[in-house]
Fold each of these.
Amino acid sequence: MTTGPGAVSEFDRDIAVSREGDHFSGELKDGWRVGGGVNGGFQLSLLGNAIRAALPDHPDPVAVSAYYISPAVAGPARVDVRPLRTGGRTATVAADLRQGDDVRLSVLATYGDLAAFPSDDVRTTAEPVVLPPRDECVANTLAPEEIKEMAPFTQRFEMLFHPDEVGWAVGKPSGRGQISAWFRLADDREPDPLALLMAVDALPPVTFDLGLPGWAPTVELSAHVRAKPAPGWLRLRHRTRNVAGGFFEEDCEVWDSADRLVAQSRQLALLPR
Amino acid sequence: MTTGPGAVSEFDRDIAVSREGDHFSGELKDGWRVGGGVNGGFQLSLLGNAIRAALPDHPDPVAVSAYYISPAVAGPARVDVRPLRTGGRTATVAADLRQGDDVRLSVLATYGDLAAFPSDDVRTTAEPVVLPPRDECVANTLAPEEIKEMAPFTQRFEMLFHPDEVGWAVGKPSGRGQISAWFRLADDREPDPLALLMAVDALPPVTFDLGLPGWAPTVELSAHVRAKPAPGWLRLRHRTRNVAGGFFEEDCEVWDSADRLVAQSRQLALLPR
């Protein structure tokens, strides 16, 4: 693994896209696979990187809504970006990620320059995610080898679970519908708005904590990036409060090392069968 | 006002669309105006009605994400619906609402048949919106005449505000960032999934309760319709927990008369200047 000054992190290497005429090309690497599919948050980071390239004056995702059309597989991917409104403080685009003729992911997104937004009025009544010290949490590196092979995605970051919310790993879910963890990308790659698009879909499905293991396909995921994250560890939390009709909503909050709520997301997902 | 058996409610009359070749036509009526623009939730109901017409096997919105591109005005509108995936339990489309050459609203949406979804596993830990009896709440009909003229939208329904959360109307906002109310469409039109798309954007901006009156333009609104609402009054609640960067998130919950959480939405909006 390459680290050190000047080295490119695996995350940056893997979300890279190149412009080819009217579209962008990239590759969904096998390392981001979960079972037969590729993690939806990672797809969003790669697609989000293409949008950033298409909008030089608006480098950061502010609001992104993703609809997952068909399961992505490891291999080449193409991103098309279509501007809907540009100019001013924000720009809005439609974008699709395709493999061959199949749309994997269709997105609407508003981008802006988070550093240029006013920073003097922050009123957050949401309460930060509280986690025990990292050496008291349960590391993803402890996962069994068969999990690591089935889901190499889980090895792209350090994830240190709240010890009270990881009972599902040993068949004792809490039943509360909450999973939280410390989070840091491999290579100590610092968080940024594009990485947050992956972070909001990085934890296991919150249904694990309800005693429903198994894949929970995302129908729709909308994320708001509310500030550039400070360097260091992130804290992530998944929660659900409404399981019904064979679906559940999953809210994610991402807090940075400066105790700022930097991203909020909600997805609608299918209950595992 | 037409009422009685067989009468068409104003909501149904106003969201009506007709198919014209490859697109749908409708009209944004002046009655749904707020200041110079047309309420975003109403636009979504009209557009959502066109999607319903385009997807006869999938009549109900399940997840809808709307990006507001330019302010809509009273007058004719056109809706284009482009299928992304059809067949199976749900279908996903992209749709745009245009006036002339201008896109007002661009949407991604997943539709299904809510009545056909499994109903045996409902686990809602969210707590219902609690409101005093309706005769102890503050009715929207009490609004000054100049408000009714500026925002005829507010007269399309009965809205009975929680008396502790309506101080903004007399210059005494609570500062908590919460507004809740009883809600019922004019003509006693019963709630359904399309009406919920309007209901999630019907309350005043929650920033009123933070002492920030004024228009709060929606950047993005995503709504999940989780069940067909039971007949009768709805309870709506807006909340915000994170004001930052000149934006705020606004969560809406809609509870029906059977105490079911039938819709959840979140929007990102611009703070009033």
Amino acid sequence: MNENDYSTTHVAPQVPEPTPEEERELNAMYDRMEQLHLKPLWRQIGNLMPNHPEPDAVAHRWDWEELYSIAQRSGELVPVGRGGERRALGLANPGLGGPTYIAPTLWAAIQYLAPGENAPEHRHSQNAFRFVIEGEGVWTVVNGDAVPMRRGDFLLTPGWAYHGHHNIATEPMAWLDGLDIPFARQMDTGFFEYGTERLTDESTPEHSRSERLWAHPGLRPVAYPGARAASPIGRYAWEFTDRALSEQLALEDAGFPGVVSPGHAAIRFTNPTTGSDVMPTIRAEFHRLRPDAVTKTLHEVGNRVFQVFEGSATAFIGEKTFELKRGDVVNVPSWKPWHIAAGSEGADLFCFSDHPIFEKLDLNRTFNPEGI
Amino acid sequence: MNENDYSTTHVAPQVPEPTPEEERELNAMYDRMEQLHLKPLWRQIGNLMPNHPEPDAVAHRWDWEELYSIAQRSGELVPVGRGGERRALGLANPGLGGPTYIAPTLWAAIQYLAPGENAPEHRHSQNAFRFVIEGEGVWTVVNGDAVPMRRGDFLLTPGWAYHGHHNIATEPMAWLDGLDIPFARQMDTGFFEYGTERLTDESTPEHSRSERLWAHPGLRPVAYPGARAASPIGRYAWEFTDRALSEQLALEDAGFPGVVSPGHAAIRFTNPTTGSDVMPTIRAEFHRLRPDAVTKTLHEVGNRVFQVFEGSATAFIGEKTFELKRGDVVNVPSWKPWHIAAGSEGADLFCFSDHPIFEKLDLNRTFNPEGI
Amino acid sequence: MNENDYSTTHVAPQVPEPTPEEERELNAMYDRMEQLHLKPLWRQIGNLMPNHPEPDAVAHRWDWEELYSIAQRSGELVPVGRGGERRALGLANPGLGGPTYIAPTLWAAIQYLAPGENAPEHRHSQNAFRFVIEGEGVWTVVNGDAVPMRRGDFLLTPGWAYHGHHNIATEPMAWLDGLDIPFARQMDTGFFEYGTERLTDESTPEHSRSERLWAHPGLRPVAYPGARAASPIGRYAWEFTDRALSEQLALEDAGFPGVVSPGHAAIRFTNPTTGSDVMPTIRAEFHRLRPDAVTKTLHEVGNRVFQVFEGSATAFIGEKTFELKRGDVVNVPSWKPWHIAAGSEGADLFCFSDHPIFEKLDLNRTFNPEGI
Amino acid sequence: MNENDYSTTHVAPQVPEPTPEEERELNAMYDRMEQLHLKPLWRQIGNLMPNHPEPDAVAHRWDWEELYSIAQRSGELVPVGRGGERRALGLANPGLGGPTYIAPTLWAAIQYLAPGENAPEHRHSQNAFRFVIEGEGVWTVVNGDAVPMRRGDFLLTPGWAYHGHHNIATEPMAWLDGLDIPFARQMDTGFFEYGTERLTDESTPEHSRSERLWAHPGLRPVAYPGARAASPIGRYAWEFTDRALSEQLALEDAGFPGVVSPGHAAIRFTNPTTGSDVMPTIRAEFHRLRPDAVTKTLHEVGNRVFQVFEGSATAFIGEKTFELKRGDVVNVPSWKPWHIAAGSEGADLFCFSDHPIFEKLDLNRTFNPEGI
């Protein structure tokens, strides 16, 4: 950012051209300010306080085939283990420079685990989830609970839960990781601790204990009353997500409400102890578009990331257009208008966002230019 | 209540015996107070403010066979229709005198619908649920949504939702109704309106639309964000309740937590938009006891009603003991210590209570004399 | 209530006149039901579920001069002390029969303490407040904090706080007590314990410690974060109430918003840790009407009690009209339309209600027939 | 940040030294990743996920005399008006590089207004407050309400409220501004709009209308029920802050609780509609230390900024020690242990922080190494 660059929507201060003498005095003053660690607002306000969010982050699409192939290559060249902790490739927003942020708040990565590999246990205050685009054979162990990972599953590792993974299959497995690492790093909130090198539970059950206790519709164990900051459900199995979306479209076919807009079904993954988002900083949803259906256009404060689970779509984000096929990842920066049009076979889209942060802080704002 | 009866825990005021003259003056004063619609606290306090809740309601057991047989008889003699509205037999607590209250807050009734019968639509601000002890073939239509009723199902009709029922089977059907009618009546909060004579939807779908939209574990439709006062799930199908309870016991077998106490599994029916109770005034739970398992003893502010769904049990409530078999109903008045011991085949128990009222008003209190 | 009385708004069940034989069978059935502690809904519904609240409580006015004079008389004839606990004259709603309820939820009483008298300490789960209509010289000691009582002050004794009073003045003192005794009694939630006979603090400070810690506008002690069920402010001093009301009227004079309606200023006493009502079950407000100002007409679920603090007014409640002068008390039963017109010198009115109970349970409803 | 720098608390990955051939392959892979906008976690984790917050921000002290003198100089050389908007000197944390952030979330600035000057109206979604270290004669107009500014006052401009200032005195005036500009900028949430050039209300009342309506202890206008995101009190007058702090110390002298720790009184400015913080992102407090009193040592997630209002103190922050006199500003970065020791005349300290952000997101953590 150039300090003297005013964003187009701010007017330049109406100051008469200084004389050379005034110029010298001003410069002396600005030098003195710099020594004192002071900066004048009047030379920055357009950048600091734009008329609407002007994110440095840009919309970008990552191609799944390329992601998968380079993840595979890293599986050949780089071992996974203590220190590096995870074989995860972070999707780095081209507009955000150095660190691996897909958005100012969010981290997204492809994690890859070869057959027989083991990612040692650790914990961190950062909230994490995994979404499985394909494969099976990995169990993630969260606070001692072995959770199977299969295509379509959405899995939680809320902040400060110990977790590790192992792949017991004969095939490698790759999935999407989402965390609030950038938020924690920029806001200085993160804590991290190593756990055991070996997993604390090497069993491979069909369902996690968290599902057996908590994943029943509208039912909760009497032994655990009260609200929790994060969902106790470790695995949102694909079977239920798929069914909920199908039902919305079937209700639409029968003339009843339930979908977000015509041809656009969507569910939000929630914390059953509160009915709100799965974790304090991250929202996760699954969207299903009928063939050729188009979502409403939205401007929203905050960031979304989509991954195509099935089918194909075209994403329109600000001025950009992205063709998306299975596995591709695309992000929507804050306040950029976006809509998605499904291809001829329809589209299933996993989505996560940082919207809960801004809703809790009363900073959220949504605008639909089509007027709804 | 005798105004001059002091409860055993209150001391009598230490007042010297009045002289006859004083007696006359006192009587004159008390007469005058009565004319002015005044009553002196010092002659009432033991009754008005006992040391702990001393409910007029008593623990009582209603025998299912008797209930069912008289309900059947009423089916022969009394038509159902507009005016009487429902063929419901209210369980009247023997301690509460005239009106049909099973507790100061709660109404419980057996409702009976003969083949082909139709209970016309109406709505009321009173919250209502139904629990099906046996049979099938009735659909309840709630705000235009046809909801099937089958053994083990728990069904909601939150306050101000239009509802009616019809029986399309060749068999009569009976179920348990629970409402907060006594609370509404005593607190003067109730509103009531007639709806249509015929049901607004005579279809007989396998699942209600409310289930299709909302009864998916940890998932909610994106189209309906926000908290609601009452659960949007119209039917909590037995299949899920049964599975959740079985899983708790299986987890206990495997050495993991989840049950309330040894051999005692329990789930609470919840509002998925908040994680709390299904309706603002009524809590509903389902308890499963292993053979010979015994619940912890509790004193609780508020009232519980149990119905045996399967198996048999002995309920110990205050000084009383009740043998319970399938279908029997028993109530626990406020603060009476209670525990339940399952019979040799175990026991499945539906339970509802008014505890949410007292939790919201910070009046709840629980005491376990065994010290946990 | 006559069980066979249908409220005017319910239709009578459309049942053909029974034959003598049918009549016998019906009677046999109803007898059997009575033995089984069952009551048929169809013979009660109009009473149990009226179209709108039809309270047994009636609107009534108590005359302050009469109240005060009989309170004085009781001061001569009846000592205050352990057992009777308080020299309090409960205002008994003429519609509510035996016990001392001004409303189904609320107790209101005049309490009288002669010079040098002492009301011993006790505590109860019932929430209590006092409002001082005249006089000074009594300190109420709440959990060891000596709280002065002076004309216009509103004082809290939230549930389970130990409290006693003593009068150190040379004059007797009388005030209005408000509690949720009827709610606790009918709902079986009440607990009671004796404390010390002598007050735990006999000092007579100008301000209570609770005021010194908590009664600063918009400020709270950092040492006590978090929400509390009841307000920590023991005394809402008249000085602040008066000023807040005057400011609302001054703002109205200057053309700015703030009053409830033209000429009608009102403040609500609140819990500074939450911004909501002072206690979980009781709302308290103070209303000031300009000369000849008239409040809007309201139907409300729940009960209000007014006491005239200064000036005079006419209260219109349902079909009734009451002339009110200083000290007079009047109640508004649930759903009865009411408005109040100030006399020529205006009116200052203290008001308390049970509205928080019904708001928390989603049972509140308000209707303004003038159409705001 | 060097991507290959592991923080001292992370172990380096235990990878065997690659052969030259492997080295080439790795480099090719890393080059390819860069092209694809991917970064491997294993080369970053120590920086991205340190064991505890390792803020880039450093603790720094700004000297009031220097601040004031350069502000004065800018008053001579730079006009205030549309475009630059405010004559505000932002305190730029030496550890945070380019933009003017005192913390990752917070902006702090000295604003200076010469006699007769006028800062035009605008509004922004960023939350703002002002704290007046000395002087009087400025009115800030917030949504049309003219609010006086005097020494010790704490003033609010919640997000999206129009506001401007004018100085009607014959002296210049300077004060401390605090905003969440950095949070809004980094999180892309900010909106900004110009208002009128001239103030919408040029009156100079003794009290703002917001104070007249809302600044009464424990009282709120009945006309405005419900919770608000930000406090409706525009001005927290010094008189009340001072009194509340004095009372805490007087209670301590008398042996009663109320202070944070011995000799350390503190109040939090709150939103009277909720009892919580004045604005969704910013906490503000005032601390008073007796002569030579020392606060407890704390590690806290989040950032604090202190300004000395009166007296002198020594701040111990991490490894650093700062001598503070009247007007000096010092910041505490996240998780740096801090305590403050008052000088011989005691110290009055204004304090603001971003703690509400992290409390709402369940990311707050506090640690007192002294074990309390």
